[in-house]
Amino acid sequence: MQAPAIGGVQAPRGNGRVVRLPQGASLTDFAEKIGANPASLVQIMLHLGEMVTATQSVNEETLQLLGEELDFNVQVVSPEDEDRELLESFDIEYGEDEGGEERLQSRPPVVTIMGHVDHGKTKLLDAIRNANVVAGEAGGITQHIGAYQVGTQVDGQERKITFIDTPGHEAFTAMRARGAETTDLVVLVVAADDGVKPQTTEAIDHATAAGVPIVVAVNKVDKEGADPQRVRAQLTEYGLVAEEFGGQTLFVDVSAKQGLNLDGLLEAVVLTADAELDLRANPDQDAQGVAIEAHLDRGRGSVATVLVQRGTLQVGDSIVCGGAFGRVRAMLDENGNNVEVALPSRPVQVLGLTAVPGAGDNFLVVDDDRVARQIADRRASRKRNAELLKSRPKLTLEEMLEDLKKGELQELLLIIKGDVSGSVEALEDSLLKIDVGDEVNLRVIRRGVGAITQDDVNLALTSKGTVIIGFNVRPERNASELADREGVDIRYYSVIYQAIEEVELALKGMLKPEYEEAQLGTAEVREIFKVPRIGNVAGSMVLSGTIKRNSKARLVRDGIVVAQELTVSSLRRFKEDATEVREGFECGIGVGYNDIKLGDVIETYEMREKPRD
Ligand code: GDP
User: Considering the domain boundaries, does residue 377 fall inside one?
Assistant: First the structure.
């Protein structure tokens, strides 16, 4: 049904109908869903005080505002939700183990190695793998497939550990930013001759943000000048306190080069996993997991390494992996051997997919090829749409503060990057001293010297509500591109007090004053006069309060607002102009609106700035 909406713009009314829109939808998407003209929605938004173009992707608040205005119940769905719903429509649940507790069995921990460049991450991964090539497999060609599994004896039991074979936190954060949580535990490599370095602390930040326990491998103990105790002392500052200092963290001295004490490291991983994690999965269900790496091989087609997270993957299974699908033609392990079944925490190379999935895409086994194809097709078309939309709505400092106020965010998280460490510390100190009351918490999740890197943006992406502050620094090019694309707010300052002032003002909500409506008076229309040049004037009786000239007004008919955003442009008592007329008196009111009827009520009000407390 078409009915006049606001300001005479024609748009359908929803009467409460539900409209589902993806995150970052545009007014054009909205218009398509409700069968309206996009231009009319642009106009309505303009009336509501927001200037947006038809194709620009807008934030959830804007979609909600528009929905309310047109009486649609707008539901904004995230890509993850959308995917969950897509799978649910096929009666598939992703991400949960089927059945109850009794069906869960323990699974090996999945480990990522992180640490500063040149501290020996790659060497350590190689050393662990080579030390573990068992006699029977020695002939196999060890190859890099993105992850591998090793065995070790702990307390007389054979235990397995899976290592993700891409060291460093770039892969780790990229996966997490896509919602894929693969890593159970982090091995932090610190060179004993070099100590804690910037990427060491970055790695700690990432692991902590992900709530993943850390085992510290103090590497290169064979080197002259190695001082493993100093590493322990340094790391206490970052909350990693060695057992011998009364803490909980296991530190293991190793030499990746000489293959020294690698068993000790594996044991520490198993012990930490046993103590801090409950790693169990249901092996008796259709397999599900995550793609870790994939490429196109000339001879073999799409080759994808997947990590099974629950269930058992078997040759012949029909699978979907991101936008790719197919039947598992063969599975290979890290030694190039054929594998028939892969249990939870097992990484395997899968041959047989139609396309190359992305790292971090989820994979799952489905009943048959047809279902696999349908899911893959739907995902692929959704991905195309998302790409068309290009950018996600920006969550600016102001918007975050709105969310803070609404209780959707409890914390404003900051990443501070500066040109020299002195100014970074000074800025952090002062920012933390800002008194913003109890409801709002300000937390600095990273501080550092140097340009804003892609890694900073990735960290901001993994925690909603993070703003990056650049003090006398600029982002690296790929970092600013990523921030633009993903909508991360970066603020630049060169004067400390300016930064403090802006954050403080923002936190106190003073960047945008809030107004509230105060009712002034109401009057009932008793007579209508036509006045040349002015139009219709309402001969009225003031029912309550005072009618003031120039105040805002709306016209109410039978309890329904028929016109708003009006102004009392003329006010007369008998033939005289009046500035105000009180309750119980008659007057002539002109509101610049001709469609007045007897019995209408004119309500007048003004907008008053709401005081902050
Ligand atoms: P990554 O950047 O952390 O992956 O570091 P690499 O594994 O590439 O190692 C950096 C350098 O340190 C290489 O030259 C390695 O040979 C050397 N290295 C790694 N581990 C050890 C070790 O335990 N002892 C000694 N002496 N050198 C090592």
Answer: no
